[in-house]
Design a protein that fits this description.
The protein is 78% helix and 0% strand. It is mainly alpha-helical. The chain folds into three domains: 78 residues, no CATH class; 76 residues; 43 residues, no CATH class. Helix 4 packs antiparallel against helix 5, helix 5 packs antiparallel against helix 6 and helix 6 runs parallel beside helix 8. The longest helix has 25 residues. It is flat. It starts with 10 loop residues before the first helix and ends with a helix. 16% of the residues are buried. The mean pLDDT is 83.
Amino acid sequence: ILPWQRWGWSKRPWFLVAIILPLIPIWENGMVLHPISLLTAASFYVLLAIVNRQIRFTYISAALINWLLWRWFWELQLSNYLWYVIPLGLSLLYIAQVDPQMKQPQQKQARHNLRLLGSGLICVVALLSNQWTGIVSGVISILIIFAGLSLRVRAFLFVGTATFIINAGYQLVILMFDYPISKWIVGLIVGIAFIWIAATFETRREQMNTLFSNWMSELKTWE
Protein backbone atom coordinates (compact mmCIF):
# COMPACT_ATOMS: atom_id res chain seq x y z
CA ILE A 1 0.00 0.00 0.00
CA LEU A 2 1.49 3.29 -1.09
CA PRO A 3 1.77 6.14 1.48
CA TRP A 4 -0.52 8.53 -0.39
CA GLN A 5 -1.23 10.73 2.62
CA ARG A 6 2.48 11.21 3.39
CA TRP A 7 3.00 12.33 -0.18
CA GLY A 8 0.23 14.89 0.17
CA TRP A 9 -2.37 12.91 -1.76
CA SER A 10 -5.76 12.14 -0.32
CA LYS A 11 -6.40 8.43 -0.01
CA ARG A 12 -10.17 8.58 -0.49
CA PRO A 13 -10.32 9.41 -4.25
CA TRP A 14 -8.01 6.51 -5.08
CA PHE A 15 -10.03 4.25 -2.83
CA LEU A 16 -13.22 5.20 -4.66
CA VAL A 17 -11.52 4.57 -8.00
CA ALA A 18 -10.47 1.12 -6.80
CA ILE A 19 -14.08 0.38 -5.88
CA ILE A 20 -15.65 1.60 -9.10
CA LEU A 21 -13.02 0.52 -11.64
CA PRO A 22 -13.81 -3.25 -11.67
CA LEU A 23 -17.50 -2.52 -12.18
CA ILE A 24 -17.01 -0.58 -15.42
CA PRO A 25 -16.14 -3.54 -17.69
CA ILE A 26 -18.79 -5.63 -15.95
CA TRP A 27 -21.41 -2.98 -16.70
CA GLU A 28 -20.35 -2.74 -20.34
CA ASN A 29 -19.80 -6.44 -21.03
CA GLY A 30 -21.88 -8.18 -18.40
CA MET A 31 -23.49 -10.62 -20.83
CA VAL A 32 -20.25 -11.85 -22.40
CA LEU A 33 -17.78 -11.52 -19.55
CA HIS A 34 -16.15 -14.80 -18.57
CA PRO A 35 -17.48 -16.36 -15.33
CA ILE A 36 -13.95 -16.43 -13.90
CA SER A 37 -13.78 -12.66 -14.30
CA LEU A 38 -17.03 -12.23 -12.39
CA LEU A 39 -15.84 -14.56 -9.63
CA THR A 40 -12.55 -12.67 -9.44
CA ALA A 41 -14.39 -9.37 -9.09
CA ALA A 42 -16.66 -10.84 -6.43
CA SER A 43 -13.62 -12.14 -4.54
CA PHE A 44 -12.01 -8.70 -4.79
CA TYR A 45 -14.94 -7.06 -3.01
CA VAL A 46 -14.94 -9.75 -0.34
CA LEU A 47 -11.24 -9.04 0.24
CA LEU A 48 -11.99 -5.33 0.28
CA ALA A 49 -14.64 -5.91 2.93
CA ILE A 50 -12.22 -7.90 5.08
CA VAL A 51 -9.35 -5.42 4.80
CA ASN A 52 -11.51 -2.37 5.48
CA ARG A 53 -13.86 -4.14 7.89
CA GLN A 54 -16.83 -2.98 5.85
CA ILE A 55 -19.20 -5.90 5.40
CA ARG A 56 -21.33 -3.92 2.98
CA PHE A 57 -18.74 -4.35 0.23
CA THR A 58 -19.84 -7.98 0.13
CA TYR A 59 -23.22 -6.79 -1.14
CA ILE A 60 -21.48 -6.03 -4.44
CA SER A 61 -20.07 -9.56 -4.37
CA ALA A 62 -23.56 -10.93 -3.80
CA ALA A 63 -24.89 -8.91 -6.75
CA LEU A 64 -22.11 -10.20 -9.01
CA ILE A 65 -22.71 -13.80 -7.95
CA ASN A 66 -26.43 -13.35 -8.55
CA TRP A 67 -25.72 -12.04 -12.04
CA LEU A 68 -23.41 -14.98 -12.71
CA LEU A 69 -26.07 -17.45 -11.57
CA TRP A 70 -28.79 -15.76 -13.63
CA ARG A 71 -26.60 -15.93 -16.72
CA TRP A 72 -25.89 -19.58 -16.06
CA PHE A 73 -29.58 -20.40 -15.55
CA TRP A 74 -30.41 -18.54 -18.76
CA GLU A 75 -27.80 -20.51 -20.71
CA LEU A 76 -29.26 -23.73 -19.30
CA GLN A 77 -32.67 -22.52 -20.52
CA LEU A 78 -34.27 -22.83 -17.11
CA SER A 79 -37.66 -21.20 -17.51
CA ASN A 80 -38.93 -21.59 -13.95
CA TYR A 81 -38.82 -18.20 -12.25
CA LEU A 82 -37.96 -19.85 -8.95
CA TRP A 83 -34.38 -20.41 -10.12
CA TYR A 84 -33.91 -16.68 -10.60
CA VAL A 85 -35.70 -15.59 -7.44
CA ILE A 86 -33.87 -17.85 -4.98
CA PRO A 87 -30.50 -16.01 -5.30
CA LEU A 88 -32.26 -12.66 -4.87
CA GLY A 89 -34.21 -13.84 -1.83
CA LEU A 90 -31.10 -15.33 -0.23
CA SER A 91 -29.25 -12.06 -0.83
CA LEU A 92 -31.96 -10.15 1.03
CA LEU A 93 -31.73 -12.62 3.91
CA TYR A 94 -27.95 -12.21 3.91
CA ILE A 95 -28.28 -8.43 4.20
CA ALA A 96 -30.76 -8.81 7.05
CA GLN A 97 -28.32 -11.07 8.86
CA VAL A 98 -25.02 -9.21 8.47
CA ASP A 99 -25.83 -5.54 7.94
CA PRO A 100 -24.42 -3.50 10.87
CA GLN A 101 -27.42 -1.22 11.05
CA MET A 102 -29.85 -4.14 10.96
CA LYS A 103 -28.11 -5.68 13.97
CA GLN A 104 -29.05 -2.77 16.21
CA PRO A 105 -31.88 -3.52 18.67
CA GLN A 106 -34.02 -0.63 17.42
CA GLN A 107 -33.90 -2.12 13.92
CA LYS A 108 -35.50 -5.41 14.97
CA GLN A 109 -38.72 -4.69 13.07
CA ALA A 110 -36.84 -3.63 9.93
CA ARG A 111 -34.77 -6.81 10.12
CA HIS A 112 -37.95 -8.82 10.55
CA ASN A 113 -39.58 -7.12 7.55
CA LEU A 114 -36.55 -7.74 5.34
CA ARG A 115 -36.57 -11.41 6.30
CA LEU A 116 -40.27 -11.56 5.52
CA LEU A 117 -39.55 -10.03 2.11
CA GLY A 118 -36.67 -12.37 1.28
CA SER A 119 -38.30 -15.61 2.40
CA GLY A 120 -41.75 -14.53 1.21
CA LEU A 121 -40.43 -13.77 -2.27
CA ILE A 122 -39.07 -17.30 -2.58
CA CYS A 123 -42.22 -18.92 -1.21
CA VAL A 124 -44.67 -16.89 -3.30
CA VAL A 125 -42.82 -17.67 -6.52
CA ALA A 126 -42.57 -21.33 -5.49
CA LEU A 127 -46.34 -21.41 -5.02
CA LEU A 128 -47.10 -19.69 -8.31
CA SER A 129 -44.60 -21.61 -10.42
CA ASN A 130 -45.41 -25.08 -9.06
CA GLN A 131 -49.16 -24.93 -8.61
CA TRP A 132 -50.17 -28.36 -9.82
CA THR A 133 -47.77 -30.58 -7.93
CA GLY A 134 -47.04 -28.54 -4.81
CA ILE A 135 -43.99 -30.66 -4.04
CA VAL A 136 -41.40 -27.91 -4.49
CA SER A 137 -43.32 -25.30 -2.52
CA GLY A 138 -44.09 -27.89 0.16
CA VAL A 139 -40.43 -28.82 0.57
CA ILE A 140 -39.36 -25.16 0.62
CA SER A 141 -42.00 -24.26 3.22
CA ILE A 142 -40.93 -27.15 5.47
CA LEU A 143 -37.27 -26.15 5.18
CA ILE A 144 -38.13 -22.56 6.08
CA ILE A 145 -40.22 -23.71 9.06
CA PHE A 146 -37.32 -25.81 10.35
CA ALA A 147 -34.97 -22.87 9.81
CA GLY A 148 -37.31 -20.66 11.84
CA LEU A 149 -37.53 -23.19 14.67
CA SER A 150 -33.81 -23.91 14.81
CA LEU A 151 -32.68 -20.29 14.42
CA ARG A 152 -35.58 -18.86 16.45
CA VAL A 153 -36.54 -16.48 13.66
CA ARG A 154 -40.18 -15.40 13.56
CA ALA A 155 -40.19 -14.37 9.91
CA PHE A 156 -39.16 -17.83 8.72
CA LEU A 157 -41.74 -19.51 10.93
CA PHE A 158 -44.55 -17.20 9.78
CA VAL A 159 -43.74 -17.41 6.07
CA GLY A 160 -43.07 -21.14 6.11
CA THR A 161 -46.26 -21.94 7.99
CA ALA A 162 -48.41 -19.69 5.80
CA THR A 163 -46.91 -21.17 2.64
CA PHE A 164 -47.44 -24.72 3.87
CA ILE A 165 -51.10 -24.06 4.75
CA ILE A 166 -51.83 -22.31 1.44
CA ASN A 167 -50.11 -25.05 -0.53
CA ALA A 168 -51.93 -27.81 1.36
CA GLY A 169 -55.28 -26.09 0.90
CA TYR A 170 -54.70 -25.55 -2.80
CA GLN A 171 -53.71 -29.17 -3.31
CA LEU A 172 -56.85 -30.29 -1.51
CA VAL A 173 -58.96 -28.16 -3.85
CA ILE A 174 -57.23 -29.69 -6.88
CA LEU A 175 -57.73 -33.16 -5.43
CA MET A 176 -61.44 -32.58 -4.88
CA PHE A 177 -61.97 -31.29 -8.43
CA ASP A 178 -59.99 -34.10 -10.04
CA TYR A 179 -61.44 -36.85 -7.85
CA PRO A 180 -65.00 -35.92 -6.73
CA ILE A 181 -65.25 -38.83 -4.29
CA SER A 182 -62.29 -37.42 -2.38
CA LYS A 183 -64.46 -34.40 -1.53
CA TRP A 184 -66.49 -36.52 0.87
CA ILE A 185 -63.41 -38.18 2.33
CA VAL A 186 -61.68 -34.86 2.92
CA GLY A 187 -64.85 -33.36 4.37
CA LEU A 188 -65.23 -36.29 6.75
CA ILE A 189 -61.62 -36.06 7.91
CA VAL A 190 -61.81 -32.29 8.38
CA GLY A 191 -65.09 -32.62 10.29
CA ILE A 192 -63.66 -35.25 12.64
CA ALA A 193 -60.55 -33.11 13.14
CA PHE A 194 -62.63 -30.05 14.07
CA ILE A 195 -64.75 -32.07 16.50
CA TRP A 196 -61.61 -33.47 18.14
CA ILE A 197 -60.02 -30.01 18.40
CA ALA A 198 -63.18 -28.51 19.89
CA ALA A 199 -63.54 -31.33 22.42
CA THR A 200 -59.88 -31.15 23.40
CA PHE A 201 -59.98 -27.39 23.80
CA GLU A 202 -63.15 -27.54 25.88
CA THR A 203 -61.77 -30.13 28.31
CA ARG A 204 -58.35 -28.50 28.57
CA ARG A 205 -59.25 -24.85 28.18
CA GLU A 206 -57.00 -23.58 30.97
CA GLN A 207 -54.03 -25.64 29.88
CA MET A 208 -54.44 -24.54 26.27
CA ASN A 209 -54.74 -20.88 27.23
CA THR A 210 -51.64 -21.10 29.41
CA LEU A 211 -49.72 -22.94 26.72
CA PHE A 212 -50.74 -20.38 24.09
CA SER A 213 -49.80 -17.45 26.32
CA ASN A 214 -46.41 -18.97 27.12
CA TRP A 215 -45.79 -19.70 23.47
CA MET A 216 -46.65 -16.13 22.43
CA SER A 217 -44.38 -14.74 25.14
CA GLU A 218 -41.57 -16.99 23.96
CA LEU A 219 -42.18 -15.98 20.36
CA LYS A 220 -41.70 -12.30 21.22
CA THR A 221 -38.13 -13.05 22.30
CA TRP A 222 -37.26 -14.53 18.91
CA GLU A 223 -35.47 -12.62 16.19
